[in-house]
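hey so i finally got around to running the thing on that chain from the lab meeting. sorry it took forever, my laptop kept dying and i had to restart like 3 times. anyway pasting the input first so we r on the same page abt which one it is
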Amino acid sequence: MKKYLSIIFLIVFYPNISFAETMEDLLNDNYKITEEKIVKFERYAHKIFTLKKKKSVKLCSVKIYKSSGLSSRSKCMTP
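ok and heres what got predicted. didnt touch it at all, straight out
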């Protein structure tokens, strides 16, 4: 749980961190979605995906706006 909170903190408070890969790139590279979580805020939510390929793990986040729906891009990082 602490790991998820720290990742959410990084996503929310440091949005300018450079992310090398998108979720689509990882899925095309044979990563599989193993877990999905939604973290809700007042105006938006983050859907966090855990992707795995053998021993490699990546976390991807997609921002969902309450008024307009999904964000057009995903952010992925290695925990």
